[in-house]
Design a protein that fits this description.
InterPro entries: Haem_Oase (IPR002051), Haem_Oase-like (IPR016053), Haem_Oase-like_multi-hlx (IPR016084). This protein has 217 residues and is mainly α. The chain is built from eleven helices and no strands. The termini are far apart. The structure holds protoporphyrin IX containing FE.
Length: 217
């Protein structure tokens, strides 16, 4: 039997983990409009640590045969996150900001992949950026409605990819990159395993946030 394209393999293999992340109580409560804007800001802070890890290391991977093709400036989110945080928390948003332990563990794993295993970095790249281009748009819509942010404006800039005019086409191109990834079958399996780990790291952050913002009702 023919092996399915890698983009199909990684999507199928992470489907259960996706459902789990998506249905975590923090996500459901946040998207259900049950949490205050403080919870959203706290979540955005955690994302900043994760994207800093993903993007601070990106430049060093630009020429890497496996990870290099994935490094695309139009995906970069750190600046958008910083603008959102300045809006949500004020100009001193960074003062005293500390990552939750689960977030630190996530960022550290990303940094480790950047340093030691760029193919593993691809799994983290896929898990975040393709997700942001997909379900991220649902989150933006809910955030705008729940907390009254201007459409695609301050507070939700993280979800707005200004330089990607056709997300569906971009995602097709991204899947082609995955399909052509310069890795053998064993390495591809390792990338898939790392993708599951990336989802688990996200879910752990949601659980930590869920503990911080339990529903009072
Ligand atoms: C409540 C939150 C979420 C919703 C509503 C959601 C929704 C979606 C939807 C509708 C798609 C399919 C889009 C398409 O086929 O083009 C998708 C894809 C994806 N999501 Fe999510 N998602 C959520 C959370 C997450 C989280 C937390 C992650 C990981 C951190 C994630 C990662 C992904 C990835 C990687 C894909 C691309 C799958 C592929 O086509 O290969 N999502 N999401």
């Amino acid at each position: 039997m023919d092996t399915p394209p890698f983009s199909t393999l990684i999507r199928t293999a992470s489907q259960d983990a996706h459902t789990e992340a998506e249905s975590s109580s923090f996500m459901s409560d946040m998207l259900g409009g049950k949490l205050g804007v403080d919870a959203y800001a706290r979540y955005t802070e955690q994302l900043w640590f994760v994207y800093r890890a993903l993007e601070a290391g990106a430049e060093s991977l630009r020429d890497h045969p496996v990870a290099g093709p994935f490094i695309q400036p139009e995906l970069m989110r750190s600046t958008a996150l910083e603008r959102d945080l300045a809006h949500l928390r004020g100009p001193s948003w960074q003062e005293g900001l500390v990552a939750l332990p689960a977030t630190r563990a996530y960022a550290e794993r990303v940094e480790e992949c950047v340093r030691e295993w760029p193919a593993g970095y691809v799994a983290h790249h896929y898990t975040r950026y393709l997700g942001d281009l997909s379900g991220g748009q649902i989150i933006r819509d809910r955030a705008e409605k729940t907390w009254g942010f201007a459409r695609k404006g301050d507070g939700v800039r993280f979800y707005v990819f200004d330089e990607i005019t056709n997300p569906a086409a971009f995602k097709r191109g991204y899947r082609e990159l995955l399909d052509g990834v310069a890795a053998d079958d064993l390495e591809k399996q390792r990338i898939v395993a790392e993708c599951k780990r990336a989802f688990a790291l996200n879910t752990a952050v949601f659980h930590a946030l869920g503990e911080e913002f339990p529903l009072s009702a």
